[in-house]
Design goal:
Elements: H1 9-19, E1 24-31, E2 34-41, E3 44-51, H2 58-77, E4 86-92, E5 95-101, E6 106-107, H3 108-111, H4 125-145, E7 158-160, E8 166-168, H5 195-203, H6 214-230, H7 243-251, H8 258-261, H9 267-276, H10 287-293
Antiparallel strand pairs: 1-2, 2-3, 3-5, 4-5, 6-7, 7-8
Helix pairs in contact: 4-6, 4-10, 5-7, 6-9
């Protein structure tokens, strides 16, 4: 077995002032042309991302890394995300790297494990679910108020803290006002792509930028909650189906009835998720309305 690739030395050297001399460095992921590590030191921990230099899409991933750093700076200036989130960014011999403060939390799918089963129907779980959904909606509302859409709302990009709060991460694909895009937005995870975005992807050339709107985040929020609570994606299709065919199914705007797949009844939660999944963006609640409704 080969040795795991280390993070860029330039990043580690610069981050030592923030974390202290690293005590552990853990490779978290290595896929799709980028890598991520957790760098832990006596003063704290950071997540470091960098493009994979020998990947076929190395230049695209480097551009995406630079784009995310630009988004973080602009979102911070707009008051849409905490100024404590971004730590640093820069270049290295292989391209670009980015560091953000480490967030202790479980990915949404894992956090929903208890709620996904019939044993989840207990007194403590319902307020936990609504509190999580409320905090998630509040974080998106801050972005939407500033004129931004996250554009990649999905279970992997949402961490749940021990206190039951949802934290949004990964802003590479975000769409904001006056965007000088380095990488055109062409949708994110297929399963949580809103119908209007699916339609736009199918009807435009592959190099055309699609400006995601806040209402698309709301559909993605509902889809993520639906999926992680029921264990079923809201639009049914075979995993082997081609992505364009999946998008065509999503574009129809029809979703599985939540009552048919829910693990246990929770009417208020179900109604809010169903409202998020309205096929017409104008019929969906805003993030601010959702935060007040959960």
């Amino acid at each position: 077995m080969g040795q795991e690739p280390p993070p860029p030395a330039e990043a580690v050297a610069l981050l030592t002032g923030h974390t202290g001399e690293p005590t552990t460095i853990q490779l978290l992921s290595d896929r799709r042309g980028s890598r991520a590590w957790k760098v832990q030191g006596p003063k704290g921990a950071v997540a470091v991302k960098a493009n994979t230099p020998d990947a076929d899409n190395a230049s695209d991933k480097a551009a995406e890394m630079a784009q995310e750093d630009d988004h973080l700076l602009r979102l911070t200036a707009a008051g849409a995300i905490s100024p404590d989130y971004r730590v640093s960014a820069g270049t290295w011999e292989g391209g670009r790297w980015l560091a953000v403060n480490w967030i202790d939390g479980a990915p949404l799918w894992r956090a929903f494990a208890l709620a996904r089963g019939p044993e989840g129907d207990r007194a403590a779980v319902q307020p936990w679910l609504t509190g999580l959904a409320r905090s998630w909606s509040e974080r998106l509302a801050r972005m939407h108020t500033a004129g931004w859409a996250h554009a990649d709302v999905q279970p992997t990009n949402t961490l749940v803290t021990n206190g039951g709060q949802a934290v949004v991460i990964d802003y590479a694909l975000a769409c904001g006002p006056g965007d000088g895009r380095r990488v055109p937005y062409r949708g994110a995870l297929t399963h949580t792509t809103a119908p209007e975005l699916a339609t736009a992807i199918l009807s435009t050339p592959a190099d055309t930028h699609i400006q995601a709107q806040p209402a698309a985040d709301i559909w993605s929020l509902g889809a993520s909650l639906f999926w992680c609570w029921t264990g079923h994606r809201p639009v049914p299709y075979d995993d082997a189906t081609d992505r364009l065919e999946k998008l065509a199914a999503i574009a129809k705007g029809t979703t599985t009835a939540l009552r048919d797949v829910r693990p246990w009844p929770f009417l208020d939660f179900e109604n809010a998720i169903t409202a998020c999944l309205a096929p017409d963006p104008a019929d969906r609640p805003t993030a601010k309305e959702l935060a007040a409704a959960w």
